[in-house]
Amino acid sequence: MLFELSHDCIFGTDANPRMARTAKMNMIMHGDGHGGVHHHDGLIDVNGIFKNRFDVILTNPPFGARIEKTQVVTNADLPTEEQAKKYIEKYPNYEEKVLTPLKEYANYDKGKGKPILSLYEIGVMSSLTEVLFIERCLNLLKPGGRMGIVLPEGVLNNANLQKVREYVESKAKILLIVSIPQDVFIASGATVKPSLLFFKKFTDEEAIQYEIITQKAQKEIRCKYKTELEQIKKSDEGEKNLKTRQKEIEMHIENEIKAQIKEQFNYAIPIADVEKAGISTIGAEIENELKPLEKEFAVYRKENNLWNNVLSKNIYQIMSDDNVYRIPMINGTAFTEPEVFYQTKK
Fold it and tell me: Do 73 and 189 sit in the same domain of this protein?
């Protein structure tokens, strides 16, 4: 069991060759397998590192760098014939899920290669590496999988990254946010204040629940403003004024939809502010408030079943028309309108 865990279940990748070698050597010294650790671009699939494969991901992506539009997938990113054969035997659907797409990306545009940015939905919102790695890790996780990631605090409060935050909230639940002191990474040259963010990717049921809530909100809010938008189209006002009014209403619609989704898909997000995280500005060991926080959060997550998948069930209720209705529930919350299960009167 331990052999299988260390040799077949642990993977890592780093674009820095020194970091990759250090990780491999560390695992060798501890008697663990190191075949899953690669010197490779973390945004591109390699070996067993591909979509929907992981239960847990821990990552400290590079901060502040950008992926340029000129950075593309090339033939150098493809496995060798020997590696491909090995991976096809080892991983179900590897050829379909990884090898074939990689070949298509490398041969894109007559062999010029597909831009890495275009592989990610967030790529149209931001080219920052720390932002792209959020989507990358969410893609790698299985439904219900968990991740811990070190991010610059600006990802949480920068107005320019609002759409990125909304994207993440549509794919995963935030389990915990921990603000840590800038001192932690000063010794390694980092100058931004970091935070630790912990997510749980939506289970299949949570993804369905979120999609239903979103569609319902869009339908209700757009219906609310339908008449007003139609009146604008029929108005004799100047074209410029009409476009301004229409734009204002569309903005109201968008904001109300977001507010309704947040209200109906509501959950608590614990936030902790740690002042001492075990390391000083010069790299010396000091008091570590993260250790008691870990114990406190362990109790909290057990009490709130954070690791568990949502429980779904149907409840049945007699309504005022005397018919029996079925109400689909997830974690005690109705996520669709009641539907007639049995009619008492015909």
Answer: yes
Host H or E run for residue 319: none
Q: Is residue 12 domain-shared with residue 34, that is, in the same domain?
A: yes
| 223 and 297 housed in the same domain | no
- List Cα–Cα distances, 1 to 7, 95, 143, 234, 257, in angstroms: 10, 27, 24, 71, 48
Is the pLDDT at 135 greater than 90? The verdict is yes
Q: Are residues 256 and 317 in the same domain?
A: no
Same domain, 285 and 316: no
Separation between Cα atoms, residue 341 and residue 325, nearest integer Å = 5
Asked whether the beta carbons of 269 and 177 are under 8 A apart, the reply is yes
CB contact burial 4-13 (16+ within 10 A = b; e otherwise): eebeeebbbb
For residues 75-103, give the mean pLDDT: 95
DSSP structural state of residue 80? P
Give the type of residue at 231: Q
Alpha helices in 42-99, H assignment, sequence order? 81-90, 94
Return d(Cα 20, Cα 206) in angstroms, integer: 36
Q: Which helix (H) or strand (E) holds 243?
A: helix 239-264
Same domain, 16 and 93: yes
How far is residue 312's CA from residue 344's CA, in Å, rounded to a whole number?
26
**155 and 297 assigned to the same domain:** yes
Give every CB contact of residue 312 below 8 A, 6+ residues apart in sequence: 205, 328, 329, 330
Residue 236 pLDDT level (bands cut at 50, 70, 90)? low
Position 161, amino acid = L
The whole-number average pLDDT for the span 210-228 is 90
Give the C-alpha separation, 235 to 157, whole Å.
40
Question: 172 by DSSP, 3-state: which?
Answer: strand
Q: Is the pLDDT of residue 240 over 80?
A: no
Per-residue model confidence as pLDDT tens digits over 18-35: 999 999 999 888 877 788
Quick one: 186 and 52 in the same domain?
yes
Q: Tell me: the pLDDT tens digits for 142-183?
A: 999 999 999 998 898 888 999 999 999 999 999 999 999 888
Number of domains in the chain: 3
Pairwise CA distance, residues 314 & 328, whole Å:
4
**Residue span of the structural domain in which 260 resides:** 211-264
